[in-house]
Amino acid sequence: MEQWTIQKLLDWMNGYFTEKTVDAPRLTAELLLCHVLGCQRIELYTNFDRVVDQARLARLRELVKRCAEHEPVAYLVGRCEFYSLAIKVNKSCLIPRPETELLVERAVDFLRARQTTAAVLDLCTGSGCVAIAIAKNVADCSLTATDVSDDALSIANANIKTHALAERIRLLCGDLFDPIVAGLDETGFDLIVSNPPYVSAAEFETLDKNVRDYEPRQALYGGIDGLDVYRRIAEKIDPFLKPDGALILEIGYAQGPAIRQLLEQTALFKNIKVEKDHSNNDRIVTAHKA
Ligand SMILES: C[S@@+](CC[C@H](N)C(=O)[O-])C[C@H]1O[C@@H](n2cnc3c(N)ncnc32)[C@H](O)[C@@H]1O
Description:
Blueprint: H1 6-19, H2 25-37, H3 41-46, H4 54-68, H5 73-77, E1 79-82, E2 85-88, H6 100-114, E3 118-123, H7 129-137, E4 141-147, H8 150-162, E5 169-173, E6 189-194, H9 201-206, H10 209-212, H11 217-220, H12 228-236, E7 241-250, H13 256-266, E8 269-276, E9 282-289
Parallel strand pairs: 3-4, 3-6, 4-5, 6-7
Antiparallel strand pairs: 1-2, 7-9, 8-9
Bound molecules: S-adenosylmethionine.
S-adenosylmethionine is lined by residues 93-94, 96, 100, 124-127, 129-130, 146-149, 152, 175-176, 195-197, 218-219, 229.
């Protein structure tokens, strides 16, 4: 019977995934093999000649097949990395994106400069990645995180437990601010962050297959022009944000001017700043309450 060593498997998968136009074929091969072997990537390289047994090969074969059909590798292995933290994911939540790390960076900057115990609200929390990364990097803050999806909140809950943050992050299910009773639950938040669904109807049709066919539509689709959730956040935010608080949003690659206008129309904010990401796309909006 043919013997499959780690090196031989990696080379074969790399070629196969390249042929099937899977993104980052070599990295994908390594992540799948690590998952099946229960090891770190570095261990693949120190054990190139290890022969993989039949039971593990059978598991790998199933994952390779699904991967070639463009199922995201993060769903196949059930985890991904965000802000240097391991985050559990499944099909009920969006896979955290590297661009969203900039949202966390700005939130951490704001909270560290404030130097007081702060209350933070993360709207549309999904896997909980944003709230968790903020809590891990700012000691003096407590967080509330909301989402409409019960299933996504189950994953967020698991992640919060893994990172031992149950004392600091409270999860609530419902539409945006609806699960929070202003004045009773909180006297107001120092910071409100959100990475809401912002893909427009036209963009939705052009999304990559691995996104459109696998990630939850509810996490992606933001209405005809992609701005529905931002409009509703702008409409409802006033009683929830402290007078000197800030709003930090992730936005779509060309939504800067529209979001600026939307926030200006509320007359609630000063210093509205649109920031670009590393690919020179509009990505983060920061606004301070006037
Ligand atoms: C783009 S994902 C962001 C997830 C996570 N914060 C991240 O950055 O990876 C948007 C999330 O918003 C949730 N969502 C959609 N509409 C919502 C609403 N009206 N109220 C609360 N959450 C909503 C979806 O279930 C999804 O989990």
